[in-house]
Amino acid sequence: MRANIDLSSALTEARARYAHNNPASRAQHDRALQVLPGGNTRTVLHFDPFPLLLTGGAGCRLWDADDHEYTDFLGEYTAGLFGHSEPRIRAAVVEAMDRGTLLSAPNRDEAELADLLCTRFPGVDRLRFCNSGTEANLMAVAAARAHTRRNGLVVMRGGYHGGVFMFKDGYNRVNVPYPYYYARFNDIDYTTALVDHHAADIAAIMVEPVMGTGGALPATREFLEALREAADRHDIALLFDEVMTSRVSSGGAQKHYDVTPDLTSFGKYIGGGLTIGAFGGRADIIDLYDPRRPDALPHAGTFNNNVLTMAAGVTAMRDIYTPDVADAHNQRGEAFKERVNLYAREHGHPVVITGIGSLLCIHFNHAQVKTPADVHADIPDAAALCHLFMLEHGFYTSKTGLMSLSLPLDADDYSGFEAALQTFMDEFSEPLRRAA
User: Fold this and answer.
1) pLDDT in tens, 168-202
2) Longest CA–CA separation in the chain, Å
3) Is residue 120 left, alpha or beta, with left meaning phi > 0 and alpha meaning psi from -120 to 50?
4) Is the pTM of this model over 0.85?
5) How does residue 264 score in pLDDT terms, banded at 50, 70 and 90?
6) Rounded CA separation 140/151 (Å)
7) Strand, coil or helix: what is 22?
8) What angle is formed at CA 90 by the lines to CA 89 and CA 93, rounded to 5 degrees?
């Protein structure tokens, strides 16, 4: 137990130790700074003093340039559900490559993958593919605006729906310049009043049923039901961003909550770990993209039906992440979450894991964490310190504590992570309590 140190000083020590232990990653970062702003091309991957250079992965294991091994609890922000180099997915990709990759035509796998998704998710009658979750949300919003002939979007403060829909601090200079109405996640009265007041200009209500990047914050069932009722009341499209949350049950968050949206966006894991996005929903809305219509909305994209991704996605969703496997995997995540939370409660640690199933996040807070405002109240420096501590003990997570659990993780991996996190809580219990 380190009782005579504050979290800021402990973080300074941890960063110095991290820099000393990872000289090859630092050297690569210094080289990258010459050609990439900040040394990388994905903002979320940066952390101080510099990010790791990972050189390979297999199953749920990762290796860095300094020959350290990690157990992967980040799972590429939910895209890495199948782990690294899953052999069945690899075989599907190799077979597809042998058939030809740039065919300039519909291919044999895209309709099968679409059928798998339409069958599994209650709110999806029709579906189209694209290349990312960001693009999926853009095209879903375009469909909602065309269908309703309105312009505005209701979004949640603190929400994230891709690189051009970021609402952590409300207005963001890189966002698509639509009219936005900022609601409060899990606040029924405020949000429904906002919708009622601006209904004449609202095309869609866009929400993650579990705020992923925002801290794995589950919506209450009552909140989602209230959004469904408000959307019905004013003929507004309810859009569930399930880019992350579609993995939390055999039918996504919409099945978990038993609330059916009009539109759903997908991405991340449904392509077996390859680049993908998709958007689907009610037939009368998605059929606006039917090219046989004289008034069809255009939807371009050279790699929308990428041969490699379609093949990998069919194998992933048909043969590997079956509905039974999905439910069992998320039950393991729930049990893992409850074990950690029980330990924290019994020992009085200001630590709680939020989320549903395999989409989780560590928070440093004595209070219940249900909204973005609660996340802002997390203990300063605690997440950054825990991140470096867990790296030093061989577990790879995000700098914010976000975890997405992959299928290759076994009982020993879970127990090892729990033991390391318990050690962190015990070692820094006094400074954490003082900071709380």
Assistant:
1) 887 789 999 999 999 999 999 999 999 999 999 99
2) 73
3) alpha
4) yes
5) very high
6) 13
7) coil
8) 90
